Amino acid sequence: IFTGMTPILIVKDPDLIKDILIKDFPKFSNRGFP
């Protein structure tokens, strides 16, 4: 999905969301949240 010209990712799996926000947060923290 795109917001203007910027691609965004929508995650619907609760386990994957938990992994991203807790375990892998340092890898994604500089990406920005809408």
From TrEMBL:
Keywords: Monooxygenase, Oxidoreductase. InterPro entries: Cyt_P450_sf. It comes from the Eukaryota. GO terms for molecular function: heme binding; iron ion binding; monooxygenase activity; oxidoreductase activity, acting on paired donors, with incorporation or reduction of molecular oxygen. This is Uncharacterized protein. It comes from Camponotus floridanus (Florida carpenter ant).
